[in-house]
Write a structure and sequence with these properties.
Number of strands: 15
CATH class of the largest domain: Alpha Beta
Radius of gyration: 27 Å
Distance between the termini: 86 Å
Number of domains: 4
Strand order of the largest sheet: 10-9-13-12-11-14-15
Structural class: alpha+beta
Oligomer: single chain
Largest sheet: 7 strands, mixed
Strand content: 15-25%
CATH architecture of the largest domain: 3-Layer(aba) Sandwich
Shape: elongated
CATH superfamily of the largest domain: Glutaredoxin
Length: about 375
Amino acid sequence: MKIKALVYGTVAAVTVLAACKDESKFKIEGTVKNAGKTSKVYLLEADSTQINVVDSVSLSSDGKFEIKHSSPYENLYKLRVGTGIYDLIAKNGETITFTTDDSDKNHGYEITGSDNSEKIQEFNKISTFWGEKNNKIVEEYQSKVEAAGKESDSLVNAYRPMFMKNMEDYAQAVLKFVGDNKNSLASFYALSSLEPMRYEQQMVAYAEDLKKSNNFSDNPAVKRFVKQMEAVKSTSIGHKAPEFTVTGIDGKPINLSDYKGKYVMLDFWASWCAPCRAENPNVVKAYAAYKDKGFNILGISLDVTKDDWKKAIAADKLTWAHGSDLQRFDGPTERLYHIEAIPSNFIIDPQGNIVAKNITGQALGDFLNKTFNKAK
């Protein structure tokens, strides 16, 4: 009977403790070793547009601190301790333990009590690993430039592929992390680190998964992301290219339907866009190599004056068809295709489907080679 009473008493105690748990806030119990002159810890909330300080506490003499904060939804937070910034993901009801050594220049930290905080820490390790590799490539390149006394095409050509490969390897590591952790909010923040124009297709697919699963649906940043991806989905790879009419440089209308049954690249650019002008020689080269094999280009300028537009066409020797709404990013064609940055392009196949998007440099040549030099 005594044993049975002890069991019931233990169960009752656990039930009472669970009932007393504060579900209206999350708590961070922290330890900062070797705090030195660091006397305060700041809690920052990561909004989609800015990072705000939402709380701060003083460190005790033995480096301990405790923060309690209420969050209406699961969200990304950061702790600022001295010069270190530490990521965590928190939701009400969690008790998170945090430990760091303020003398550690690498700002390592341990965190428990929150699976998603451990996941964001895992992602940060991925980001740090590839970031350090990237820094080494940049440092090596800069040292060779200094030794030579100037930049050169040979150095750029040697190091650009290394840099691009490292960026692509990082992206693949991120995409694997996202695929392995779809039910963690950490996957959302990891995916957000990638370039939207290059990885739009993956982002659209991720947003579709979020809608189906209803994961993190109360998080405003996630809501905005899903809405943005829904807007660009109609012009993402695999979808039919929306029909439009644009005014040609000769004043006559040009319709997308004029290219039905052909390969055509819609090339959004402008005379005032330095990256566009830098990319134009590559586009000229691609057009020369594949125009006789069925490759067409329709240049769509975001200029506002016809004179500037015509001068740039002549100067860069752009011998394909050209049209413009002459309204920068506010033209109907630009809005239809959700153009927010240039250069931007869409390659449309003979069936009217978007088969590639925003590919430049060597990637454009590789795509056209694969498309037009298929083994028969």
